[in-house]
Structure formats: C-alpha cells, structure tokens
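pipeline/complex-builder :: batch 7 item 3
reading input block
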Amino acid sequence: MSRKVLLIEDEPNITEAIRFLLTREGWQVETHAEGTDAVQVILAAEPDLVILDVMLPGKSGMDVLRDLREHENMARLPVLMLTARGQSRDREMAENAGVSRFMTKPFSNSEVLTAVRDLHAQASQS
Amino acid sequence: MTTDPGDEPRPSVARQSLFLERQSYRRRRLADAARLLPFLGAALIALPLLWPDGSSDEAPVPLSSAIYYIFICWVGLILCSFLFGLAARRMSGREDTGPETEKWQR
Amino acid sequence: MATLNVLILVCLGYVVLLFGVAFAADRLAAAGRGRWLRSPLIYTLSLSIYCTAWTFYGAVGNAARSGLEFVTIYIGPTLVMISWWWGLRKLVRVGRSQRVTSIADLVSSRYGKSNTLAICVTILAVLGGTPYIALQLQSITLSFSIFAEADPSGLYREGSSVFWVAAGLAVFAILFGTRNLDVNERHHGVVTAIAVESVVKLFALLAVGIFVVWGVAGGIGPIMDRIDASEIGQWQVDGGRWTAITFLSAAAFVCLPRMFQVMVVENDDEGHLRTAAWAFPLYLLLMSLFVIPIAVVGLDLLPAGSNPDLFVLTVPLSQGNDWLAMLSFIGGFSSATSMVIVTAMALSTMVSNHLVMPIWLSMQESKSSVSGDVRTIVLLARRISIAVIMCLGFFYYRLSGGGAALASIGLVAFAGISQILPALVGGLFWRGATRTGALAGLSVGFGLWIYTLLLPGMGGWVMPETVLQNGPFGIGWLRPQAMFGLEGIDPMTHTVLWSLALNTIAFCVTSLLSFPSPLERLQGAQFVNVFDHSVAPRGWSGSVAQSEDLMIMTQRILGAAPAQEFFQLEAEKQGGRGRLPEPTPGFLERLERELSGSVGAATAHAMIGQIVGGSSVSVEDLLAVADESAQLLEYSGQLEAKSAELSRTARQLRDANAKLTQISMQKDAFLGQVSHELRTPMTSIRAFSEIMRDTEELSPEEKTRYAAIIHDEALRLTRLLDDLLDLSVLESGQVSLNMGEATLHAVLDRASSTALAGAERPLKIKRTKVSERISLHTDLDRLGQVFINVISNAQKYCDAAEPVLTITAHDVGGQAVVDFVDNGSGIPPEAQSMVFEKFARVGIDKAGGAGLGLAICDEIMQRLGGEISYLPGQGGAAFRVSLPLAYRQAAQ
C-alpha cells in the first residue's frame, strides 16, 4: 500500500530535502510550488497527508488551508504546516484555520519524520 | 480535528428573532387599531344623519330602531376598547416601561 | 307623602354619610392601607362627575324635546375615552410628570410657565363654570319645589332655598376640598365620596328606568311600541347640532376643570385609564339607557305643560311611588353636590394659584419677604375663592331667572370651556405652538363665545333685541347669531363653528408667526415628547441660594413635617451630611416641582426665583441675556473656534496614532520578512547537512550536489546579511560618502560589466555614448551599485525572448537623468508602487535576492540628493535615476 504525501513548497531546495527524506520512508511524494491553485491540486491528488508552506506565491498557505477545510471530506485530512516567519500570531492563525500540526523552520529531519508518522498513524486509526 | 464555525447550526437563533419581530409587529398593528377605533366610532355615530327623517318623502326611521342602532354600536365600541385594554395589559406586563414599548405607543 | 322636613333630613343624612366616607378614606390613605382607594374602579367612578344634575334631570328633558339628541352628550366622552391610547394617556403623563394642579396650570406650564395664560384660562374656566354651578342650584331647587308642591305645610320659599342650597354646597366644598394643602394635590377622601355618589346616581336612575319599563309600560316590547307611537317617535335630529354637540361634549370632557381635576390631577396610576377606557363608556351607556323610556312615559302620563326636566322625579311621584321618587331625588342631589364640590375645588385651586398667589407675591418685595405662613394664605385664598364662585353661581341663577332649559345652559358652559381645546391639543402635539398663539386663539374664541352665545342667552337687558336682529350699529354681518352672513343654523352650532374655527386659525397662524422663548421651547419639547423623557431639564443654579431660606419657605407651603422629610431625603441623596441639602440645580428643580404641586408651576417658579434670586441663573435668564446682547454670537464664535481647534488636535492625534500603528505594523512585517529570509536558507542547509551526516549510502554525485546546495544557501545568507547591514547603515544616515569625479559613461561601463559577469542569460544593452558624456561629482561606488542593481534586475526578470535593455541619459537643467527601459512585459500596475519597499519581489524567482535591492537603491539615491523611480507606460520595466551633476551638501 502506497502512502502519498503532497508537498506544497516554493523553495526548491527544501522541496528536494523533504522529498529525499520521505521517499526513503516509503512515501510517494508529489510536489507543487504555487498557492493559487493549491486547493485544486490537493483535491485532485487525494493525498494521505499534506505538507504546506505558509509563504506561497499567489495565495498564502493559511488561505489555502482555510479553503481546503470548506470542502467536504477535507475536514479531517492531516495537514502539516511549515513556516519561516516564526511569529506566535501565525501559530494561532494556523490553528484557527484548522491545521493538524505546525512547525517552524528550520526543523531537524527527525522532527519532520516524527510529525509525519504521528499524523499518519492518527489519521489511519480514526 | 477542528470544527468549522460555518457549519454551526444557527437557524434557532434566527427563528427566535423572527418571532420577536412578529410579536412587536402585532403590537404595532394593535396600537394602530386602537388609534383608529375612535374614528370608527365617530363614523358609526355620524351614520344616522344620512337616514331619512320627517322632512323627506321617505318614511322616517322609527325611534326604536335608532335606539337599537345607537346602543348596539355603543356596546360594540365598549367591547373593542375592553379587548384592547386586555391586550395592552398583557403586553405591558411582558415588557414593562421599556423604551421600546414607549416608542411604539405614540 | 314625604314632607319637606323629611327631605331635608334625608339630604343632611346623606351629606353626613359622604363626610364619613371621605373621612374614612383619608384616614385609610394616611395609614397607607387604602390600596383599593387607588383602584381603577374608583378612578372610573370618579370620572362620572361628568354626569351632573344636568344630565341626571336634563337628559330626560332633552329627550322629551328632541328625541335621541341627548346621547351626543355621552357619545363625545365615549369617543375620547376609547382614544385614550394616544390622547388621554399623553395628557395624564404630562400632567403627572409636570405635577400640574389644574388645566390652567397645564396650559401655563406648557407655554413657558406664563402666568398671563394661566390667568386667561382661569377666568375662562370661572366664567364657563358659573352658569354650570347655577344649573346645579337650579336643579336642586326645582326638585325641592316638586316636593314642596305636595307639602301641606307650605313653608317652602324658592328664593331662600336657593340661597341655602348654595351656602350649604359652599360649606360642603370648603370642608371637603380645602381641609389640607396636599403636596400632590390628591384628595383620596373626596374622590372616594364622589365614587360613592356616582354609584348612588346610577342606581337611582336605573331604578326609575326599571320601574318605568317593567312597572309602568310592562316590558321591553310594549315600551318600544310606546316610544314609536309617541310624539318623538321618529328619527329626527338636526345634523349640525348632532355633530356640534358630539364634538363639544368630547372637547368639554377634556377641558372642563372638574374633569381635568379627577382625570389628570387625581390620577394615581396611568394604567387606570386602561380600565376606564371601557368602564366609563359603559357607565355612560347605563346612564342613558332608560332616558328615552322615562321621557316617553312622562309625556304620556303627565299633563301637558309639565316640565320634562323633572320627569325623573314626577313620574314615580305620579304613580304614588314616593320612595322611588325620594331615591331619584337623592340621585339628582348626588349629581349636583359632587359636581359642585369638584368644580369648586378645581376652580379655587386655579384662582388661588394663578390670581391670588401672584398678586400676593408681587406685593412682597425683598427676599426676606417669604414671611408668614404661605400655607394659611393658600388655604384661605381657596376658601374665599370657593365662596366667591358659589356666589357668582347664585347671582347668575338669580339673573337668568332660572328659566332656560337645563340642557341649554350646560351646553353654553361646554362651548365656553372648549375654547381651551386648541391651545391644549396644540400644546401636547405640536412643538411649534407658542404662548402668543395660545393667547391669540383663546382670546378670539372666548370673545366670540361671549358675543355669540353667552350674551344673547342672558336676555334682553344685556343684549338688546335690535343688536340680535340687525347687528351692532346696524352692521349686518356682525349679527351675534349670524356672523359673516351665516344664517339659518342653530345658534349653538353657529357658535361652535365660528368660535372654534377662528380660535384654531388664530392659534395656528400666530404660533407660526411668533417666536417662542427658550423656556417655552424647553417645555414644548417636554410636553410633546413626554414619552421619550419624563425628566426635565429646567435649570436652577443655586450656588449662592440659601438652603435655610428654601427650607423655611417650603415648610410654609408643604407643612413642617413633609418639608423636613423632603429636605432630609435630598440631603441623604447628596451624601448625607447635615440636615440641609446643597442647593444643586437638581435639588432646586425637584423642590420646584414639589412646590408646584401645591401652588402651581408659575408660582413655584417665581417663589424659588425670589429666594435663589439674583444670584441664580435659570435657563431662561441665561438664554434671554444671551439673546439680547451680541454676547451669544461672540460666545458661540469662541466656542466654534475652540471646538475647531479641538477637532484639529484630535485629528492630529488620530493621524499620529495611525502613523504609529502603521510603523509598528511595518516593523512587525519587516521582522517577519527578515526571519523568513534567514530561516529559509538555513532550513535547506540544516536539512541537507543532516542528510549528509545521517545517511550512509549516499552516492558521490549526491554528496557533491547536496554540498553545492549548502554552499549556495550559505552564500545567499551572506548576501542577505550584507544587504541588511547596508540598508541599516543607509537608513540610519551614518553612511560616509566617498566623493569622486567621473563621467556617467564610465560609471555605466563599469556597472554593466559587473552586472552581466557570469550571467547565464545574455542581455543586450543599447546605449548612446554621446549623451553619456556628463561629468558627475558624487559617490561613484554607490551610484554604480544602483546601476548594477537595475541592470541585473533587467537581466533576471526581463521575460522577452531576446532581452534588450535601453539606457538613455539626459542633462536636464543641472540634473543627470538616466532611463533604463527593457523590452519585457514590465511590472504590473498594482505592484509598481511596491517595488521600492523592502522585501518586495515581483515574480516567483527566489534565488536572486532577498528583495532588498531596490530598497537599497532608493536609500542610496536619497543620500546622493537624487531619486530613483519607476516609469510606467514604457512598454517594459522602466526605471529612471536622476541626480544632481554636482553633489551638494545642502541636498542632504
């Protein structure tokens, strides 16, 4: 059974690093670098988990998440959010938008892997 | 998982406010009716002036009919006033001396 | 057969009973146990003083003469009662909130506490009330005479009996109405006695009616047949009189001093109107239910020529039913006494408050003058007024000879008192009504009433027949009963039409043309919008007023105990030091109201004014003074200037606040941006270094590639830090400029070669060397930095297939102007204003820089005394750099 993760991140080097890490864990990694059509991409890809950057070109990750949660069946999709701004207000906003886990860059690789594992386990249990 | 505030059931609140509006709407119309009552009374009392009296060719109305007419109208007005008084009491009991009640009373 | 002596005994017994009732009710009320005394039922019954002896006896007489016309007298009040919601309720609310003591007080209070108006209304009320009292005397005397005819002793003499009746009633009214000076002018005892009397008269009339219908005629069917067969058995009314009397009785119901007394002054609870609205019309209906049957049976049974006004008495007597006749006599006596008592009370209040007290006050001059017990003076004034009013009634009766039919005298009084209506209704519903207007309307209506109705009715010795026939001095259109040529209608209708129409017109037109005083406007607003605010801003400022003096005066008016209680309460309200409260405006206002309950609004105002005196400033005084002089204008000018200054300061503060908020938000955004720009490369560096550390099976190619990424990101970090440092140095203004001389050509050469070194994409640069021969004196390195930035931006962002950058230079009046235009799609209009902001980036390419380049260029150009700007509408992205040819210190 293949587990699919959709990585929405506009920084190519970070994309590459996360792709490397998760592929080794047995994930099928798809990527996207735009905020504008991110919701459509998520709906089309039907991933098991989404990793979402906050500062995306076109549309902020917050708005993407908020719009995503409006859709049916998308209320429970695990979303791991990454931000480089690191202000406490962002965490609050993300929680209001319905984030599953929120992480500040720079992160250690093991942190990302733990978070992904936890979220996936929670989602498949319930 | 977080819940979306947009899915919160709100119709109950809406229904309540609609209910209140209807209530105050009723009261306003009732007050209108109370305002109109004296005019209705005046019209009813003025009506006999159109009846034929001894001066014209038509047979004059007998006094007993006139008495019946006047007193029945009178009783009707008293009843209306009584019913309105009851309604006013019920309403003022519910919202005593509130500014809202004062406003619509004028 | 009941003898006169028995009759007199019964009367005395009845009066004693009433005293007992009144006394007991007062005792109960004083003990606080008389809750039922203030019930809606008592209130409704007390309203029935509307039904006087005139209606008790006269209605039957009227019915015997004109059929159903008598009901109009009852229909009018019915219509007023059922419109209580928007009419009487407002009147009662105003009356209670302003503590008015009479209708004259209400009108005076509405029109700026004008005593002139109060006097006018008082005189009108006395003149209108006199025939009415005479009417009561007449009815009692007549009813006595009926019994006297049958009395064998023959002791009865009409003249002396009228006198004794008048005297008895006066004593009765004085004892009842002026026993004490009530703070709020409410007389529970009197009201209760009146309620009892109203039950008695209703019971008496119903008893006679039932006796007539079932005892004499034999049921409803037969009586109806008898009615139709009688001489009044056809529907026949004068339409004009029908309408006029309905209207008149409605108006009089509100304006009559005694009605105002029981309806407004004695009212304890506005809610009572709700009950009275249906119960009182029901009372009236019951009162009129048997009038026609009694009249018809009387016409049948009694010999032609007998007075129909006394059928209520004579019908039972003719049937030998003496006890019923006695009961009916008591009913008529009740009606007369209750009316006389309340009228005398109401009129005496008005006379003492508006005629006697002002005169007495004006005779006292200085402040210390409020000496002597005002209470005694007020009470004495009232007692004398009652006596005088009764005397007037007595003389009117003697003068008019008691001949006219009861009902017509009553209507004359109605028409007179109704002249108050326009001023009253206008005052309640129209803010524009003024004192002058009210005076004008009242005088016009009053004059017309006297001229067209009162004088012609008094007989030939007052108004000669020739005047009636041909008009005064032969002026035809001034004939009293055919004014302006309106002939052939009933005199009553004629008077009502002209007097009320002209009264209303005079009132409205004069109101529109005149200007109200400030106090009038205040009071007008309070009356018309009484439901909005029941508290009044009337403004006494008693900074120097002596509480001691006020206390002494109040004690004299209210009595020692209530005054001390009131002052104690006020003192406690203010914080409770000592026995006397500070004379604050609020306290003075409440005191004035309290006093006005006893002596009327105008007098109370004047009395407090006398004590608080010259040092006080009432709203009226303040505004009047300001009105007179240009002070007001000047003051308001100053105020305006002040308020403009204030609002300017406020605006500046607001702007400063907005700026601060904006700066704070910019700082937050900047820190967020810096954080983001630093963390992003660090994320890559950390991720890949961890990968290289933790992953063993990496291929050499992967290792090289990841190391390269780490290296690139490290460089990016360095660049960012350089830029940030550069920017902060520039912004703080601590940069030291390194001046040098060179041509623009040389600076551009160096910059373009640096910018294009190592570029992956070729960028063609078009230049015109001739125009670049401009020599500059400036910091060449900084200028070069700006050029490099602009050129490398074009190199990075120009999206044309073959990117070309055209550089043109001009010398415009000592300014070097250099334009950089590329052939790409340019910067979208909405982003153009942003390009010089920090971290502004157009497009998605991140590798280039942190978005600080143009912000740095902007700062540099400002340092060099020039500027860099975006040129819209050039096809591609276009920047213009302009700077002075020679750097001047002053430019900084």
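note: Residues 3 and 27 of chain A are 5 Å apart (CA to CA).
queue -> next item
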